[in-house]
Amino acid sequence: MAKQDWLITNEGNCLAFKSPREWDLLSETNPYRLYRFLVELEDLINQTEIRGESEEALLHNIRPLVRKLILNVYWLKTNIPDISNDIGTSFSLLYDEPGFSLTIQTEIMLPQTSTSIHNHGTWGIVATLGGQQKNTFWRRSPTSDFPDKIEQVGEQIFSSGDIISLMTDTIHRVEAIGDEPTITLNLYGETLSKRFNFDPITHQAKKF
Q1: β-strands 4-8, 163-166 pairing
Q2: Domains in the chain, number
Q3: How many CA atoms does the CB half-sphere of 192 hold within 13 Å?
């Protein structure tokens, strides 16, 4: 299956985009380093803010930059976290610096492991490095009695090579499917106070 780029909107719509050619993403800087990616990413975010562009436009520009990182920095694919708990998921933080508000990490999920229904309260990029994940999407559907009510709008399976981008209020649930663990590279913007878990039965939302 061809590699695919995706945008998941705040309404849970799953939009597909053609991925750039790998040839066009080969770095002229050899070797290409994680720190170069972080500098390019920070410059891109700052330029987007200066131009007053939308979050959707920002994500369109970040996706090829993440593909460039994965293509040129091989060790990312081998930096697999150890599963040391009974939850079935584990993370490895790749970069942490005081005052730098972005999060970049690798994650492993064992087969049949799933997350809660949640948003991230910020934009996000998830690149599938191995395995398959099924994402189920919701959107807000508030009523006077239940201001945090949500409704399911669709689902999509993502495979190795796919990159999805999530907007600030994209609501989803992730499940690792198939017979092998799912490995992903996750990148998130600055999370403020808008990250929630959602209960579709009680129509309640609790801070993540």
Answers
A1: parallel
A2: 1
A3: 5
Q: What is the 3-state secondary structure (H, E, C) of the chain?
A: CCCEEEEECCCCCEEEEECCCHHHHCCCCCCCCHHHHHHHHHHHHHHHHHHCCCHHHHHHHHHHHHHHHHHHCHHHHHCCCCCCCCCCEEEEEEECCCCCCCEEEEEEECCCCECCCECCCCCEEEEEEECEEEEEEEEECCCCCCCCCEEEEEEEEEECCCEEEECCCCEEEEEEECCCCEEEEEEECCCCCCCEEEECCCCEEEEC
The residue segments making up the domain with residue 50 are 4-207
Per-residue pLDDT of the chain (208 residues; tens, 9 = 90+): 468 999 999 999 999 998 888 888 888 877 899 999 999 999 999 999 999 999 999 999 999 999 999 999 989 988 888 886 678 899 999 988 888 889 999 999 999 999 999 999 999 999 999 999 999 999 999 999 999 999 999 999 999 999 999 999 999 999 999 999 999 999 999 876 688 999 999 999 998 7
Interior/surface letters 67-82, b for 16+ CB within 10 angstroms, e for the rest? bbbbbbbeebeeebbe
Q: State the amino acid at position 158 in one-letter form.
A: F
Q: What is the pTM of this model?
A: 0.92
Which CATH number is 85's domain given? 2.60.120.10
* Pairwise CA distance, residues 65 & 31, whole Å: 16
